[in-house]
């Protein structure tokens, strides 16, 4: 009787071990819902965003996002920014926790003040709070190519300007 009970217990343990398992951010569940293993998973910390103080239209600028997960899990990030359509609503990753994600972006739209949001999630889909930062975009006031060509074609004006500049 004891051997029979031992064999039945062993068979049940083997069958239970072979059941398919799915993973969520809070627990591991077998299809039969009989075996539940709960584990603690914390969401990533809200990302830190760094952008330049001045951003000029038509010029490249760098966005840096510092990522950290309290459990050391790899993370994904996504942006929420209407002025950055190539970055918005797409999860980038997985990225190791503790990494600084860098993206070079060129903005060609109108000047003004814009908000960029960044959110992180870990590999178990636990999401951080959104972090937002303001971008101030100014018009690029470089010398236009037309003005430069004008000076090249009027060398007399160019020599006058060169003479006046050292005097200032």
Helix content: 10-25%
What is the total domain count?
2
CATH class wording of the largest domain: Mainly Beta
The coarse overall form would be: elongated
What is the terminal-to-terminal distance?
108 Å
Query: Which strand-content bin applies to the residues?
Result: 25-35%
Write down the secondary-structure element order. HEEEEEEEEEEEHH
Biggest sheet: strands side by side, in what order?
A: 5-11-10-7-8
Could you tell me the number of beta strands? 11
| CATH architectural grouping of the largest domain | Sandwich
Q: pLDDT under 50 segments (min length 5)?
A: 16-27
List the topology elements.
Layout: H1 2-18, E1 21-23, E2 27-30, E3 36-38, E4 48-50, E5 55-56, E6 60-66, E7 75-80, E8 92-95, E9 100-106, E10 112-122, E11 131-138, H2 145-153, H3 155-167
Parallel strand pairs: 5-11
Antiparallel strand pairs: 1-2, 2-3, 4-6, 6-9, 7-8, 7-10, 10-11
Structural account:
With 168 residues, this protein is α+β, with helices and mostly antiparallel strands. It is 23% helix and 35% strand. It has three helices and eleven strands, in the order H-E-E-E-E-E-E-E-E-E-E-E-H-H. A five-stranded mixed β-sheet has the order 5-11-10-7-8, with no helix packed on it. A three-stranded antiparallel β-sheet has the order 1-2-3, with no helix packed on it. A three-stranded antiparallel β-sheet has the order 4-6-9, with no helix packed on it. A hairpin with a 5-residue loop joins strand 2 and strand 3 (36-38). The longest helix is centred in the N-terminal third of the chain and has 17 residues, at 2-18. Residues 16-27 have low confidence and may be disordered.
